[in-house]
From TrEMBL:
DUF112 domain span: 20-438
Transmembrane segments: 20-49, 109-131, 138-161, 167-184, 196-216, 258-280, 316-336, 356-377, 389-407, 463-486
Name of the protein described by the UniProt record: Putative tricarboxylic transport membrane protein
Entry keyword set: Membrane, Transmembrane, Transmembrane helix
Record organism: Saccharopolyspora phatthalungensis
Amino acid sequence: MDSLNLLLDGFATALTPMNLVWAAIGVLLGTAIGVLPGIGPAMAVALLLPVTYALEPTGAFIMFAGIYFGGMFGGSTTSILLNTPGESAAVVAAMEGNPMARRGRGAQALAAAAIGHFIGAIVGITLLTLLAPTVASLAVNIGAPDYLAIMVLAFIAVTSVLGKSRVRGFASLLIGLTIGLIGLDEMTGQQRLTFGLLHLADGVDAVIVAVGLFAIGESLWVAAHLRRTSGEAIPVGRPWLGAEDLRRAWKPWLRGPLIGFPFGAIPAGGAEIPTFLSYVTERKLAKNRDEFGKGAIEGVAGPEATASASAAGTMVSMLTLGLPTTAVAAVMLAAFQQYGIQPGPLLFERESDLVWALIASMFIGSVLLLVLNLPLAPVWAKLLQIPRPYLYAGILFFASVGAYAVGGEPLDLLLLFIIGLIGFAMRRYGLPVLPAIIAVILGPTAEQQMRRALQISDGHLGGLVNTPFAITVYFVVALILLWPLVARVIPRRRAQARSAR
């Protein structure tokens, strides 16, 4: 009851005219910046951090929350329409959203994403309000073997469901893990795959890899096949969801937050892992599995709701422990410290008004996001009617600007186009791009957690599976790997039993 009363006080603060203005500005800026390939919400918050020094803390963090949720939706917009994620959490949206857009259902895909974001945010923020202390205590008890098990599950799940064969999926995963090795070994300080270039000592930024494989690779692939296509504009489609769409989407909308929120609250890679797991779940549960890969609305609704709930979950660790689990949370932590505020167990006591106003503003920002973007779905979908040469020239321009903005180094542009050529080659030989992306994002962290677990166990491999949580996750991994073989053996045995009779 105390939490409810404090939340009501937070709404009283967040609903003041000036704070509503900051929330609206944050949502609009976040959506606009998220639409640009390579410039996600983390970069938006980082760029706007100096601008907000003149604001009082409550208004600044209300705007940051709007940028966070708006940026996630903006990233899914370019994923769906152009197969070019604006940020890493929007990668999964391209898998089914882009085929929907190519079939003239871009507006419906965007509407499903907008509603999914709204439902995921509302459920996630409600759980944040009610369960923050409990989830935070669980996050403290999860160790290195558990983190490694979660990441292995993400690797196996994504390579097992994507592409025409598992071999190609694991080949793509290997490419991503190799790119993730570039840089300094965190344990020994030795250079790996840097070829003597000092700039590569810090590794290749995941944004550059994602933009290169998706935006540049897609643009080169389209350019290579442009003469073979008719060049006709893709129809936008009706700007609403039909009864059949709603029937197929409502369950993924509700399942997504249950996957996203717990993963967002623990340091396990942000929204990337739960969105992939949500996609795998929806693909397994769907009655029309054959439609996946061709534009199944479940593959948009579930992961988008998951991503939004995961964003709310990241606030649990950040506010209660001072532990950022995503890039945006890390930037917001720096913003807290800039104002002389230290997130942690005492934050809810010392800065109660600020925290509850921030949580209330997340509810308000989610409503603003739906109100602003649902009517704009057909407008965004009209991007598909721009002639392809101009459209992909614009994508190349914004992708280059985004990659250059990451580090401000000309070498980043060279890396971008080298990785783009790799993305083109992967498309040419039928390798799925997504396993490579998730390997780049999670590979270095998985290596660090594995080596940490081995150090704790003095090098014994049993240290990787010495917790009930890790054992459970590896059991799930074994099921995913062995299920296709079991599914083949069971019908054969049944057929042999019938023939014996």
